[in-house]
C-alpha cells in the first residue's frame, strides 16, 4: 500500500467558522480570525481541518441550508479570504476539507425560488414535487419532535415538496442528470480553491430514490463512484468522507468493494458502542462493533470520533444499552434529543474528570481509523443546555479569560460564550491551559504527537487481545514488522491483568510509549499489568525502530 493516502493517518479537527474566532468585532467568527489561529492548530498537531458550511445561508440550520454554493457568506469574509486561508494551511502542512451539503438547498436558494414559480421553470425538476399530499408525508423525519413532516405544501408552487430534513431544506432531485452535473461543478470549484476533499453531508439521502410514490427508498450506489471519479480526475489525492450512519452490512456498498466509492466514512457503529462501553464499563459490545466494521477495502478508512456538532446519536444501540448511556451521561430529558441521543459536549458528560477525558480520547486515538476532534474538546469545553437543540454544544471557542472568552470584542456573540461555573471561559480556556503542563490541551498535543508516531494504527490490522476482564479493552496493531498494543481500563476500579502477546515466537518486552514503565514478560511469557481506574497504556514492540523505518518512505 502506498503511503500517499494521507487520510489513512491524518488527525482531523472540525470547526465552525461562526464560533471559532472573530477578527472584526461583529460577534461572528470569520476567516481572518481563523487565519490567526492557524499556528495554534499547527502546534496542536492536527493535519487536516474540516470546516462546517460557510457558504451564504439564512443560517437556520447552522449553515446546512445553503443559498449559494459558489461563495463565502459575507459574515465570514470573501472568497479572497478563503484562498488566503487555504494558502496559510498549505504553508503549515495542514490540509482542508469542507462540508459538501448537496442533499438539499436552502428554500431561499435561487434554484428553489425559481422552481416554485411553476412547472415551466428551468429548475422545477431540480427538486422533488407532488401534486397531492403523499401518504408517507408524516414518516422518515430526521429530527423527530421538531420536524413535523417530510413533505410541505408550497402555495406559490401549488404543490408539495420533499424535505428529508427541516421544511426550509428542500431536497434536490439528485437523480436528475442536470443536478448531478451541477454537484460535480461545485466540487470542482472548491477543489480549484485549494481544498483536499469533502465531508459529504447526509450521503444515504443523497443517493436514495426520492418521490411521492417511493415507500422504500433505494440507494443508487453508482452515484458515489461518479463523485469519486470526478474528484480524483480533478485532483488525485482528493478525499471524500461520508456522513452515513448505516448498518455494518452496508459499509462495503459505501466504500465500494473495489475501493472505488467513498474514501472514508464516520464510524457511527463504533461511536455509539464506545459510549456504551464507557457508560457500562463493558468492552464486549464495542468489540463486536469493531469486528463488524473491520472489513473495508485497503485504501478506505474510518473516521473515529467522540462528539461532533450534532447530537450523540444512540439509535443503533439496544433499548437497554441506550438506557444505560442515558443514565450515565444524559439522565435529564433536557440533555436528550430527537428520542435517540444526547446533546451534551463530552467534558460535562464525564463530569470534567480529566482521567475519564484522557481515557476517552486515548481510546478514540487508538481505534482503527483516523481521529476526528471537535473544536473545544481539546480544552474540555462544556455546553449551554439553555440553547435550543444542538446549539448547546456549538458555543464559541474559549481562548482566554478576557471578556467573551477572547472570542470576540463584541458584547453580542453569535451564540453566548459559556461564562461562570465549572466550564465557563474564566476557568476553561486555551491560554491558561497552554501554560499548564498537565492541562488537557497539553495532554492532547502530546497524544496527537504520539498517535502520529504510531502509523500502525492507521495502516495496520488490529486484533483484540484476551484480558479476561470485560472492563478492559486490549488491542494489537501490526504493520511492517512493528506492533503496537493499546490497553484501556473502562472502569472506575484498578484492574490487574495477565496478557499474552506473541512476537516472533517469544513474548516480547513491551515498551511503554507514554512513560518509563515498560513491561517484561514473566517465565511463562505473560505480562502482569495493573491498570489504575480509567488507566490506559500504549506499548510498542517489534523489529525496526519506527523513526528508522520512516525514512523508508
Ligand atoms: C447532517 C449534519 O451533520 C447536520 O448538522 C445537519 O442538520 C443535517 N445533516 C442536514 O444538513
From TrEMBL:
Top-level taxon in the UniProt lineage: Bacteria
Gene Ontology biological process terms, A to Z: carbohydrate metabolic process
A Pfam entry, by short name: SupH-like_C
Cross-referenced InterPro entries: GH (IPR017853), GH13_cat_dom (IPR006047), Glyco_hydro_b (IPR013780), O16G_dom_2 (IPR045857), SupH-like_C (IPR054049)
Xref: CDD domains: AmyAc_TreS
Domain Glycosyl hydrolase family 13 catalytic stretches: 14-408
Official protein name in the record: Trehalose synthase
Organism: Azospirillum thermophilum
Lineage: Bacteria, Pseudomonadati, Pseudomonadota, Alphaproteobacteria, Rhodospirillales
